[in-house]
UniProtKB/TrEMBL annotation:
The chain crosses the membrane at residues 297-323, 344-376, 396-418, 439-460, 472-493, 514-534, 815-835, 869-891, 911-940. Signal peptide: none annotated. The lineage of its organism: Bacteria, Bacillati, Actinomycetota, Actinomycetes, Kitasatosporales. It comes from Streptomyces cavourensis. It comes from the Bacteria. Keywords: Cell membrane, Membrane, Transmembrane, Transmembrane helix. It is a multi-pass membrane protein. This is FtsX-like permease family protein.
Length: 952
């Protein structure tokens, strides 16, 4: 005999009711299964993508037992942790430096007897591609050896075995436009290699590099350098040894300690996986407390899980409420047969358990299936292969239980309502008249006010926990106010046409169905708007503080070959041929006095200098520097601070942008083409002055009475024979007063240029000068292929020329984040609105039948469904936007507090902390999504209704 006869009957009734109302049941199952699916897939992906200790070791060692590394400290004792990552010199050891000459360590002598080893060494190199040339890294490693399996895997072709063969990662082949069988040339030794295969690093799928056998690249490079003394190989990384220990023994902790005595650090597989006790690790006492804390991550995960649970309950709850009303006659029969109120509640709760259990099973199964299906895509996105699909049964079971509990919780409120109904109301179908709660809106308003106050206070005090708690309270308070807001909607339709008026009144009359759906939309939109607002605000702050190193839409061609006379015409032709440029280039040059210490690295007394002497006094000295600067910075507004920072007196105080020379005087030799194309100063008077030999000063703070003071220190060192011959005599310092054309203050922020100096004026002043490059106007940003082609052409032109473009503030990632957030909130909004519309249709069949009976056109059903969906979506989006602003503003107040601290220490640092609304995201949610929801609901609703016999 069953111990729970009442529950057994309740589950039987619930199961049969679910099968009888298949549409409603499928709706509830879908609502519970979707979040369970998402959480299951996220858990499986996270656990699988997060490498285990064994997988990390395989990524470093392949199939080898250990990696031996000489740290360059010489044969001195070292201490290390068992993982081989942390190490240090023992207490009392003599201080060492990497550039000290030390006796080399015989690393192979530290290997266990009977071991086998492979050497690994990397070198940066420039190689040819299908488009031109590119920089990459070449690793000399016998990748064909079985010891490398798991670290380097062949995907196409064969491993390199000869010294004229090389392998490339798939990412490199894609970027370079090459394929297996092509040939590449390593610039420097100009040695060609055949691409025999494509490989991948399972732990670094986006790695762009090449692999050659030991001795194939570095040795020929060094030999070429020794032969003519001109081509020097780049600095190669130190040699590493992958070691396979004696069979059955591997590399043990005693082997590691012995290697540490010789100055070698070892990362061994079996020791890292099974470390010795701390008593045997000399460094263990210093490593205590170095573990990180994931408290914030755990809190964030719990918050997301709680919000997901709340949304499921809010969305599924009305479905159970409608189901309970649809089954009220059945529940009334239970009561008439002697069933207690508790047994009536048990029937509804059992329905939640049944549908919740089915939803949990379906969601977990679908989560597994989708993870397996999209695994390759996820691996490419994350940049690493999964070692295996990692399943934690306890976590999967907890997710399933969460789905089951969610179903029960969603049915809790309808069960309580069903238990309170009298048998007569249930059997006759009358709903009765119930007044809305007057206490809930008052409590909601108070909680909303308290939550906002707490969040703002937390932001001002820098307490992020108060911000989070206050934001949650504010959202809960707004939830309590939703029934009143929904009720108010009914009054807005008095002057509207028939269908929107009915939709608004239906939403207000059935608040138990409408309010939870609006709340679910609000919860999803609030989180998305909060993150989007904060992201848009920080992006605006970064753009505000960004200092470009070149004028927007330009590219600079510069040469590093200052030791010899260079011909830049071929380099300019290469840029014009391969870069998307327009118009003629503007030539630029640099000027200096004495010996150029950017070329000759000598003592300070052997260097010349050239500078514009900045006058003192008001208008010349930056008010954000010196006495009273801190008080001024805290007193003025952010806009005023920005104006001062961009003023001529302050703009150079914190800017280290050097675009056209190797010193910071920012004096550039140029002509009118430079003014119009780069400076964007289209002024006939400035062009006329420059042509007449008058310098154009872009920063007025350096001028006084229309003149500048130019100080040149003519000092020469012994190595600078050429310039010394041009200016013989004793070292001297000259000071010249030059009349200049002063540009408007707005041009003081021009990157890299303080003054444009005519060539003939530089010659008249006895300055050394040299043409260093040109500035080109871009029509768009160049592609990777265009850059590779241009680099190859520049290499052919010689003179070590290079091209670089400006660095705009990064916003692409933020735009993607905002788009994802908008899509997420939009999907939830569409789902909630669709569910509510479906419930409205199921709950209002009698009203729809009455409309048809009184002669309403068939299209009324469609338009009514569309407007019902629109009401829910639009109301939820607007409330969610208001709720999402609260945490975003509070967090920005926290950022403002931190920025003010920084400003107190350095008045030159801006405390600008804007709050920027993500209007594109809000417009998408507030306009596009509700309208789309309404149109979809109208399109999917049938315009014809079958005749039904009137009940009762």
């Amino acid at each position: 005999m069953s111990l729970f006869p009442g529950w057994r009957a309740a589950f039987r009734i619930a199961r049969r009711d679910a099968l009888r109302a298949k549409g409603r049941s499928a709706l509830v199952v879908a609502m519970i299964a979707l979040p369970v699916l998402g959480v299951t897939a996220a858990d499986l992906t996270y656990r699988s993508a997060l490498p285990t200790a064994a997988e990390e070791l395989t990524a470093d060692l392949g199939a080898a037992d250990a990696l031996f590394v000489d740290q360059g400290m010489g044969p001195v004792p070292l201490w290390q942790m068992p993982d081989g990552i942390m190490w240090q010199t023992p207490d009392g050891a003599p201080e060492t430096f990497y550039d000290d000459e030390r006796k080399p360590v015989d690393v192979p002598a530290t290997f266990p007897k009977g071991s086998r080893s492979l050497t690994e060494q990397s070198v940066p190199a420039s190689v040819t591609t299908r488009h031109g040339i590119t920089d990459t890294q070449i690793t000399e490693l016998a990748v064909a050896d079985p010891m490398l399996r798991g670290r380097v895997e062949l995907t196409e072709g064969s491993y390199p075995k000869a010294k004229d063969e090389i392998a490339a990662t798939g990412a490199f082949l894609k970027a370079a436009g090459l394929s297996v069988g092509d040939r590449v040339t390593v610039r420097g030794p100009q040695q060609e290699y055949t691409l025999t295969g494509a490989v991948e690093l399972p732990a670094e799928l986006k790695n762009e590099s090449l692999f050659a056998v030991p001795g194939a690249v570095i040795a020929p490079w060094q030999k070429t350098a020794d032969g003519d003394g001109k081509i020097l190989p780049p600095q190669a990384s130190g040699v590493k040894w992958l070691v396979q220990g004696p069979p059955g023994a591997g590399v043990t902790w005693p082997d590691i300690l012995a290697a540490n005595e010789k100055g070698v650090v070892v990362r061994a597989r079996q020791v890292a996986l099974d470390p010795p006790p701390d008593s045997e690790v000399p460094m263990a006492v210093y490593a205590q407390g170095w573990t990180g804390s994931d408290t914030e991550l755990t809190a964030a995960v719990l918050t997301v899980a709680a919000m997901a649970l709340l949304e499921i309950v809010l969305l599924a709850g009305p479905a159970f409420a409608v189901g309970a009303r649809r089954s009220r006659r059945q529940l009334g029969l239970v009561g008439s047969c002697g069933g207690t109120r508790g047994q009536v509640r048990a029937v509804v709760l059992a329905g939640g358990a049944v549908l919740g259990g089915v939803g949990a099973v379906v969601g977990v199964g679908a989560g597994f299936g989708l993870t397996v299906l999209f695994r390759p895509m996820i691996e490419e996105f994350s940049g690493r292969r999964f070692g295996e699909l990692t399943v934690h049964p306890g976590e999967i079971l907890a997710i399933a239980v969460l789905g089951l509990v969610t179903g029960v919780l969603a049915a809790l409120a309808p069960a309580i309502v069903a238990g309170r109904q009298s048998v007569l109301e249930s059997l006759t179908g009358r709903r009765g008249s119930r007044r809305s709660s007057r206490v809930l809106p008052v409590v909601g308003t108070v909680v909303l006010a308290v939550g906002v106050a707490l969040a703002v206070y937390g932001g001002l005090s820098g307490n992020t926990r108060l911000v989070a708690g206050g934001s949650v309270l504010a959202e809960l308070g707004l939830l309590g106010c939703i029934p009143v807001i929904v009720g108010f909607l009914g009054r807005l339709g008095r002057r509207l046409p028939l269908t929107p008026r009915i939709a608004l009144r239906d939403a207000a009359r059935n608040r138990g169905r409408t309010a939870p759906a609006v709340a679910a939309v609000m919860a999803a939109v609030a989180g998305s708007v909060a993150i989007a607002t904060y992201t848009a605000s920080t992006t605006a702050e970064q753009a505000y503080d960004h200092r470009p190193n070149l004028t927007a839409g330009t590219a600079a061609l510069m040469t590093a070959d200052t030791a010899e006379k260079t011909d830049l015409s071929r380099a300019r032709a290469a840029v014009e041929q391969h870069y998307p440029v327009s118009g003629a280039p503007a030539r630029v040059g640099r000027a200096w006095a004495g010996s150029d210490c950017s070329v000759y690295y000598e003592e300070e007394d052997g260097c010349g200098t050239l500078e514009i002497v900045k006058p003192t006094g008001e208008g010349h000295s930056c008010p954000l520097k010196g006495k009273g600067a801190k008080e001024l910075a805290l007193r003025i507004s952010a806009d005023e601070h920005k104006r001062l920072m961009n003023s001529p007196a302050c703009v150079d105080e914190d800017s280290t942008t050097i675009a056209f020379g190797n010193d910071d005087n920012k004096i550039v030799i140029g002509d009118t083409a430079l003014l119009t194309s780069y400076v964007k100063l289209d002024d006939p008077e400035a062009a006329k002055a420059l042509a007449a030999g008058t310098p154009v000063l872009l920063n007025s703070a350096y001028a006084k009475d229309g003149e500048i003071t130019l100080r040149a220190r003519h000092v020469y060192n012994e190595r600078d024979k050429e310039n010394r011959a041009l200016h013989p005599g004793e070292p001297r310092t000259t000071t010249d007063r030059l009349k200049v054309y002063v540009a408007p203050d707005s041009y003081a922020t021009t990157p890299g240029i303080r003054m444009v100096l005519p060539q003939k004026t530089a010659d008249r002043l006895g300055l050394h000068s040299q043409e260093t490059g040109s500035v080109h106007t871009l029509t768009r940003e160049p592609t990777g292929a265009e850059q590779q082609a241009a680099d190859a052409a520049l290499e052919q032109a010689g003179n070590q020329a290079y091209v670089w473009t400006g660095s705009p503030a990064e916003q692409d990632d933020d735009a993607v984040v905002l788009l994802i957030l908008a899509l997420f909130a939009g999907v939830v909004t569409l789902g909630a609105a669709a569910i509510t519309t479906g419930l409205s249709k199921a709950d209002a069949e009698a009203d729809l039948t009455t409309l048809s009976a009184v002669g309403a056109p068939p299209g009324v059903r469609r338009s009514l469904s569309g407007f019902q969906c629109l009401v829910v979506a639009l109301t939820g989006v607007l409330l969610g936007t208001a709720a999402g602003i609260v945490p975003a503003v509070a967090l920005r107040l926290t950022d403002l507090r931190e920025a003010l601290k920084v400003m107190r220490d350095d008045p030159m640092e801006s405390a600008y902390t804007p709050i920027v609304m993500p209007w594109p995201t809000i417009a998408l949610l507030a306009l596009v999504v509700p309208v789309l929801a309404g149109l979809l609901a109208a399109a999917l609703t049938g315009s014809r209704q079958k005749l039904a016999r009137r009940a009762g």
